Amino acid sequence: MFSQNYDKIDNKIREILRSTTLPDILETKDILEKSKYKRASLKELASLLEVGKQQETDEQFALIRNHIYSEFRKKTNTLRYIAPVYLSSYCVNTCGYCNYSAIRTDVQRTRLSLPDLDEELQEVLAIGNRVIEFTLATDPLFTPQKLSEYITKTRELLNQEKGSGILLCSGYLSKGDYEFLKEAGLWAMVQWDETLDKDRYKKWHGNSIRKSGFEKRIDNHDMAIQAGLQVATGCLFGLADYRYDVLMQIAKARYLKKEYHTSPFVFGTPRLKSIAGKTLHTNNEVNDRQYELALMVYKVAEPKIARWLQTRETPELNLRNIVDQDIYTYQCGEVKPGGYKVNKAKLDSCKNSQFSVNEMTRKEFEKELSKRSFKGDYAWRIY
Ligand code: SF4
User: Fold this and answer.
1) How far from each other are the two terminal CA atoms of the chain, in whole angstroms?
2) What pTM was estimated for this model as a whole?
């Protein structure tokens, strides 16, 4: 279990961060060149992350950017698409950065019934999407039994089409629950660890009924993999020192590979954004330069693991960073249940969304992709 290895990895990364200095241009070139043939060490990756600190490192930043483009952008490139579908906005947790926190009384909550889900999925499938991610706040009514009914319904609608798949982003579950959901048709589990900095995690989630168990949460990927699911991991940028979280996520991916001979297929890249029009100040804000550097360091560290670019960021920033085989979401039903269709007419679009987003249409998305020698793949699940 990752929790059993946590203290050792945490100590190691804190020590690395204490002793790492900004690499000069030659050192940066050397780390990047070596990474083509040998897995970069956490110490080397920590050096690259130092480049996010100061503007006078523009030359190193450009070197890293060029390395990413030359190594990971091909003549023609593919972006794999995931369509998030919100099932519920009821939540028992109180994350201060989320509009669905239980303490927010001004949010109009909603939960999709099975007929609602059918209607919503018709819309999502009509756009062409075949890889669907269920996302839901921690709604106690969504037991594994209920989730299995939603998965079964979706599996029927996907009709075993080649490349189609169902992912679930929810609170932690047991191995047995994941096995049960896999049986119903679940393909992958998505969990952003928020932050792996235990103190910062407790600060943000210590009062949350279903999120305060740090150890349970960090072992959730173990549980899902043991049940035979693929997994997506990542941190939420802005809760702690982003350098620490990037290195911890890389270390976690390497731990999972060593333990189970399978890696997460993607690093999620969510970054704290304003909610209901209000900007959050956390003392750990990650600026664009640092954020983009973090995405690049993920790729240098683990070339085979994709990054998931999504609607919290602007299309301009996302399109600047995409490489072949990354994962993309250009539309997410306005991050609320029924946002593609069911509740579009009933709910105020900003007020009842989980956070602020920048959505596009498929036409706009594909136009932008074609300018950059990319194309979208909407049914890419690997069997
Ligand atoms: S981040 Fe998730 S768990 Fe936390 S309040 Fe929002 S919906 Fe609930």
Assistant:
1) 25
2) 0.95
